[in-house]
Amino acid sequence: MYAAAGAEVVCDDGDPCTEDDGCDGAGGCEGMAMVCERPHASGGICQAGECQGFECVAPWADCDGDWDNGCEVPTGVANQCDADGLNADGGCWTAYCGAGADPAKNFAGGFFCVDCSTCHTPEPGLWQWCDHGSGNWYASEAGNCGKFEDLICVPA
């Protein structure tokens, strides 16, 4: 018979859905349950040591097929990207998964941006029009957006 190993001794509790297994100081071995959470996703559970079963929370999508980074693209939401990719702070284009007709607007990560005539009201009495070259807003000026305010651009 052997004495119980101290809590600092590494062991394997035999459960593939636990991590950092260690002796509990009383003769047992236990680990911490794997956390199956990803950004903008729900439903993750551990099965055979792998996190699976994720579903994206709308409007987010897993465009790159890599669940390690979760659901990384807000699809079909106005003003989320520009000529450099995702940019919710200054972009005026709309993102979707897949590849678009314009190769210059396709991005690594499996998404593309759609450009259209759109206008944004950043502050009362000011408006910005989308610059079609950069995908960013032109400087604010007094004016009116009309039917183009925060228009959601859709693939053709």
List keywords for this structure.
156 residues; mainly beta; 3-stranded antiparallel beta sheet
Count of DSSP helices?
0
- Secondary structure: helix percent: under 10%
N-to-C series of helices and strands: EEEEEEEEEEEEEEE
Task: Describe the strand arrangement of the main beta sheet, using strand numbers.
Answer: 11-13-12
* Annotation, overall tally of beta strands: 15
Which regions have little confidence, pLDDT < 50, spanning 5+ residues?
none
Shape by Cα distribution: elongated
Share of residues in strands: 25-35%
State Rg: 24 Å
Q: How would you describe the overall organization of this protein?
A:
With 156 residues, this protein is mostly beta strands. It has no helices and 15 strands. It has strands spanning 18-23, 29-33, 41-42, 45-47, 50-52, 55-56, 60-61, 73-74, 81-82, 85-86, 94-97, 106-107, 111-114, 119-120, 128-129. The protein has a 3-stranded antiparallel sheet with strand order 11-13-12, with no helix packed on it. A hairpin with a 7-residue loop joins strand 14 and strand 15 (128-129). The mean pLDDT is 93.
